[in-house]
Fold each of these.
Amino acid sequence: MNVNLKKLAEMLGLSQTTVSRALNGFPEVNAETRQRVLRAVRETGYRPNRAAQRLATGRAGSIGLVMPIAQGIDSDIHFGEFLAGLGEESVRHDFHFVINPSAPEDEELTFKRLAASGNVDALFLAYVRENDPRIAMLKSLSIPFVVHGRTINQPTDYPFLDIDNTGAFYEATRLLIQLGHRRIALINGQSHLTFAIRRKKGMVRALDENGLVFDETLSHNSPMTDEYGYRAMERFLGNPEPPTAVLCSSTVMALGAVRAITRAGLTIGRDISLITHDDVLPMLKPENFMVPLTTTRSSLRAAGSRIASRLISRIGVTSDTVEQELWRTELIVRASTGPAPARR
């Protein structure tokens, strides 16, 4: 059915102005009328004229993001899952993405240009660094934004959503220590990213509390791919004193680590224990590994959806006053963790 604003208004017995205001979140339209309009939109497949909508509301109906592109930067399955959640919520509110590729060194300028273009109503920032100059830049712009993550050596006086990475790896390390493990390796994300810094911090805290020392020779930082996970685990197993347990920052890295452990003729959960962080990637479920993996779990897709909801709320479509959120992770114990093997 080809329905324009005039026909939709006639079907509902409302003025075009009322229908337009209902669709664009104006507070003077009561909830019952708004729901009638939204129901009719779903049933008819009506899509508003973007140019007219922008003139009426002063809003573009778009969320902006900057995507780093450069030689040597691989595509990231984790970011793709996050975008899926962001997209699902955006579609519910008839919002679009404006994706602006940028060389890493030009990101601040790209954000400024995107904000000034008038093509987006809000911005979000990911891949947060320890001291991140992009935060101050975003705060200087007159446009809503939400950060996925937190800086470390800067005030957290900005809207964010993050998970408790320190707590997640603290609890995971404590479990391994309770099982008798003393040499625990870490396969982590890139060292300049704050989630990786906090995960190491959580592990070190648990070790310190139990009189154990973090061994830098059993630590690895890299992009989170299965190949890097494989190489790191292979190197650890070649150590004169190999670890009896390993923590991985992603199920993707764990996939490579499992491959290296299997090729070495070792059994996960008996010869070596493994815990990984599970971002709830639909194509890589930890319970489906040959030996189901113990995990700390928090959904990236849910985080993307929540950030989209908050961004949209900040430009007046819904109401949401929450500025900062720190999500706890869930520790799920499966067969990949067992008692430390007896010393040979």
Amino acid sequence: MNKIAIVGAGPGSADLLTLRALNRLQNAEVLIWTDSLISPEIAELTSKTCEKFATSSLTLEEILALLISKAQQGKRVVRLHDGDPCLYGAISEQIYALAEEGIDVEIIPGISAYQATASELKKELTIPGIVQTIVLSRSGGRTGIPEAEKLENLAKIGASLCLYLSARHVEDVQKTLLTYYPKDTPVAIGYRVTWKDQWLKIVPLNQMAAASRDKGLFRTTLYIISPALKSHDKRSKLYSDEHKHLFRKK
């Protein structure tokens, strides 16, 4: 059976690729990549003989036609997605259509923007006694959101809330969040995190929209709303001398 590698490119920097992702890129005979969201330096990791097809102007049907055609020719095909393909990657419809043609896929994960943002800030998003849950979501926008997952319901939890694809609606997002989070809750705003033109800033929740407007943000932007972004002296019990576990007796 023919197989296509759906590869996560990570947040932007080429040195954040996994070893498996790098291997598939270096051995690819055909690269079909999301050029509007992925750094060109990652696409350049392929061989000089690799055929490259940018997809920013293509429809799903056109992309699928390319994938199917090249796979049926016996080519080693890589479908390169930004971030992690299993998160807002629109891969389920691709997998389904390829399966109908007898083409299998392998999925290679990539580092997501929320992970890269927390790392760049040198912050942990799960602090004992403060917050232990991370929620990944987005504002409704044109494609909508299931009723149970509306921002109001997610905000009630008070978790570390990571919002993708929401910069166009940031005023509405801020207004909703202020109902559930204190106005001084830190918000990390990350634009093209780990790219050469990265912009990253922490602002109070009540300045979230203004900071976004001032920077002119409308795409490739992530928001992390979390009390964990404040300075804390809380510590985990894991390394406490009072904590017994399998490898250390109390």
Amino acid sequence: MQVPNEYGYVLLVASGSFLVNVLHFFLSANARRASGLKYPIPYATEEQAAKDPKAYTFNCAQRAHGNFVESQTPFLGTLLISGLHWPNAAAALGATWVAARAAYAYGYATRGPQGRLAGFYTSSIADLALKGMALWASAQFAMGASA
């Protein structure tokens, strides 16, 4: 198996996803500071969030970050696998996912659950396409087809 020359684009996009995690860190840290909730409290209680909009915003930022952490590893797997067969398409879809997840993070942390929807839908479409490509690329490699 040979790594395509354009695979660097795939790695660049993968590295870009790490910056989205940094964005989440800042959004959560700012929301924590504003809410007054101290470490190690991971979330405001339902009662706190109902009484204090800043505690609710903190919960939104934390949930957005948790969702990102849950989805980044599968994204990276599908990106890296599909990029072995179609590096340019994988990089383009991956860049779409990264940008949409940044929009998701910012929207959720600043406008609540409704603010995440545009980023959610866009990233979901890119993610589904990458999953299909990864499955197809894996089957091609398993059957002995070259990139």
Amino acid sequence: METNALWSRRRFLGGVVATGAALTGVAWSFAGEATAQPTPSSPSVRDTINGILAFVAPGHDPYSQHQGVSTEAPGGVTPGAAETLERTFDLAVPIPLIDMLGIAVTGSAAIAALVDLFAVTAEPASVAGPFASPFANLSHATKAHVFELLDTEPQFPGRPIEYAVNAIPTLAAFVAYSEVSAFDGELRALTGRPVGWELTGYDGVSDGWDEFQGYYGGVDRAEG
């Protein structure tokens, strides 16, 4: 049912893709087929990515605090996490996602545009807020609703965009719970205790645990 407050997903996707792209700070270039080149330092794309990380793993960062679900400890929004997730999306989504109206957007810019499109259809007022990204301006519950809309959009099944949508929270969780917050890429070594280890209660690398050393009950072989 379509109301003044909530546009239908089909009408929204079909008619305001260009608006959503503008919201995410994507620069359009119309040479032959319309294409969009992602802006690596776009504040809107970065805010969207951080908004996703805060949704998946809330922490004490501004994005988590604004969404109304936060903790007193670090979460998904940690140093290096947004850059890593953007790079992951750039590699995972090399083909256009938003191809309606002949507009091609790829990588993290495509993910940000897509998520922000559905953020605005879920809550039109999200265009205004402390962040440049509509998605980042949403509450945690409304962010969940955005992913519900993405999961149930009838135009997506059977298209590459369906798999990209499923990968958004999954890849965000991989980054949030990884060692990226304390990993030096040049040295290929940890510089401290990763936030992901704290989130999971992981004690760190070990050569083994006492309970797994030796033989249980003195049994050292099994007879066939």
